[in-house]
Amino acid sequence: MSNKVYHILWVDDEHEVMPAFKRLALDYDLKLVPFKSLEAGMAELEKNLVLYDGVLLDAKFFEKEDDIPDTEDTDYVHRAKERILQLPKKFDIHILTGQAEAFDSRTFKQAFTKVFRKGISDDEDAMFNSLKVTAEGQLDFQIRNEYKRVFEIGNEKYLGSKIYEPIINLLKQIKSTNDFEPTKDNLLPLRKIIENSFDKLFELGIIPEEIYKAGLNPTVKFLSNNKNNSGYSAVKDFMHPFMAYFFDNLVFITQDSQHDKKGLKLNVDEYISNIKSPYLFKSLVFQLLDYLIWLKQFIDENSNPEVNSNLWTKENIVEIAITETVLRGQLQQDERRNYYIGQCLFPYTKVDGKYNIGDTLEITKTTLNDKTTKDKYPLFVFSFNKPD
């Protein structure tokens, strides 16, 4: 067997009694995904189109999965063909049948050009090889094999098969000519994939619920080792510093591109519209692929939700609200330019240039000071005002 796997949708009402045939297909690297009926088989193909590289049908099968024996009909194979022809992805339909009347029918062979006899080894070998050849021509198949490590993230242990289609669509755009001019809409799927990954990390207990519900930006900062002011601390950094740096930038750029309001820091939408180049888009897609490879490895190393709850701790911030007796005093400044009243340290940027030394201020709420100055100033001013 090679390192390639060909995914073939197979409709045959007798597939449950054909285990030897399924094993033989695996010898040809063909993974058959079987159904007994028209409705079930076509529903699966239409739902997960990008996953399939070929279609194999019996000449006779059921209309629905729970139909009873002797209700099989050749009409359903023609109805299947009609539905397949309506799909945006094209398949060279293969027929494997034990029905002599179908194999010998000129009309049937005009409708289906690749017809093989069930139970005839030469026919089955030829059919397997033909399925492989036609599958090799599918762009979806070529992409999945070229970026094999990336698509491992589609396993149900990670993000699931729903992730295949958006990744494949991004890579199809990557493979287009350099005349491709992306817009901000082309960047939206990147953000959606990243959000899907956060859903999984939350499910695994890696992201605290409070951070997860706070939205995209707090979650990105938490994962990329920037947990300042998050209310949480981690036993170790989640990301390698390089990964943290480019992942934070990847999300920042895609976020910026999705907003039209003035005052944005980067104005990505404006840049894309003016430069008319595919290279920013392509570079962001490749950064996303690297993130997905990292993500798989990270989930492998942290797959137990119970254990993952030990990866982080919630910081206990004790707030002391002074409501009955307001603390009032004159503003002072020490040799290190810290502003204070008694044992209460003020936030520098809230005071400097706004108040004068000696001004009378009222402190209404403080928290425990967790900075290096906590020995001298055990309390940090959370809110204050200047009385009239």
Give a verbal description of the structure.
The protein contains 17 helices and 14 strands. The model is unreliable at 318-324 (pLDDT under 50). The chain has helices at 19-27, 38-47, 75-85, 100-103, 106-111, 121-136, 139-146, 148-151, 164-175, 188-203, 209-214, 216-223, 241-257, 268-275, 279-301, 305-308, 348-351, and strands spanning 6-11, 30-35, 54-57, 94-97, 114-117, 232-234, 312-314, 319-321, 327-330, 332-333, 339-341, 344-345, 360-368, 379-385. A hairpin with a 2-residue loop joins strand 11 (339-341) and strand 12 (344-345). By secondary structure, it is an alpha/beta fold. Helix content is 43%, strand content 15%.
Terminal Cα span: 84 Å
| Oligomerization state | single chain
Give average pLDDT, whole number: 89
Query: What's the β-strand tally?
Result: 14
Low-pLDDT parts are 318-324
How many helical stretches?
Answer: 17
Q: How helix-rich are the residues, as a percent range?
A: 40-55%
Largest sheet: 7 strands, mixed
Q: What structural class is derived from the secondary structure elements?
A: alpha/beta
Which shape, going by the Cα principal axes? elongated
% residues in beta strands:
15-25%
Cα-atom radius of gyration:
31 Å
Would you summarize the structure shown here?
The protein has helices at about 20-25, 40-45, 75-85, 100-105, 105-110, 120-135, 140-145, 150, 165-175, 190-205, 210-215, 215-225, 240-255, 270-275, 280-300, 305-310, 350; strands at about 5-10, 30-35, 55, 95, 115, 230-235, 310-315, 320, 325-330, 330-335, 340, 345, 360-370, 380-385.
